[in-house]
Amino acid sequence: MTAILAPFTFGLSFFLLGMYVMRTGFQNLAGKKMADWLGRFTRTPVHSFWVGLLSTMVLQSSSAVTVLTIGLTHAGMISFSQTVGIILGTNVGTTITTELIALRLETFAVPMLLVGVALWLMPRRLTRCIGLVVAGFGLIFLGIDTMQVMAKPLEQSDAFRSLFLESRHSVWIGLITGMVFTALIHSSSATTAITMGLMSHQVLSMETALAIVLGANIGTCFTAIIASIGTNAASRQVAWCHTLFNLVGALAFLPFLSQLAMVSSLLTDSPSMRIAHAQTLFNVVCSLAALPFTRQIAAAVQWLVPDRKRRRW
């Protein structure tokens, strides 16, 4: 148990700290302009989509962009209908992190961390911010490398083997595992990174790994739901739109995991890259399919999560 928990705890801590440090660096570089972008360039669904995608690429967190969107909606700076495109864009933007993780850059973890710290010690603000981004990436890859140590003892664990055998028969277990774990740690990227590590040691089947990733897409919405507590109806609609979209997309793709695995295997031989490409395909297909129907989606969510104050009047 110690051989599993120790590398998992330290690795996950390094990973989440790296995400925070990298996000802090990006926010200092462009965070102040992010709210302006979200407020000014969301007049059409296509513009909203690109704003969501680019914002998520910069902040490296779909949850952070969604929470920011909830805040702007609560403040009345943007309407709920403008946020649907942003939500679709965040789902595509978050795949950039997964693709970077799949590049297997663990050997550069320590050099990147050292370079990042050296840049952070420089006097210029721009250099310090870049240093935070570089150091953050270094911590992320160091965390991934550390978490991979748990793969061998986990593979030999009787409890995990029995769970793995059950998940082979039912992808629902993988879906729920990814959803619950991501909701607890508030990072779908961390869940995907752990899944990639297990896949590289052939501990999981491809279908099970993809089910976990789909579950992580649902679990990441938990942060937005928490952020919407105590806000107005429009803000709650943003949170539930994000949740329902990811839930419906995951359930729609669940019967086709074998086909998704086959398509991703045609693109690369690397198990980690297969997961990254499959997640990218899933998010791109779902977002682009929904983009022409943003008004209908907004109307449906407004019906499901009504504004009670307006109804009284």
From TrEMBL:
Main location (coarse class): membrane
Bilayer topology term: Multi-pass membrane protein
Location within or outside the cell: Cell membrane
Pfam families, sorted: Na_Pi_cotrans
Organism, scientific name: Brevibacillus aydinogluensis
GO cellular component: plasma membrane
Name used for this protein in its record: Na/Pi-cotransporter
GO biological process: sodium-dependent phosphate transport
Membrane-spanning ranges: 6-26, 47-72, 101-122, 129-151, 171-198, 210-231, 243-268
InterPro entries, sorted: Na/Pi_transpt, NaPi_cotrn-rel/YqeW-like
One function term, GO molecular function aspect: sodium:phosphate symporter activity
Keyword set, alphabetical order: Cell membrane, Membrane, Transmembrane, Transmembrane helix
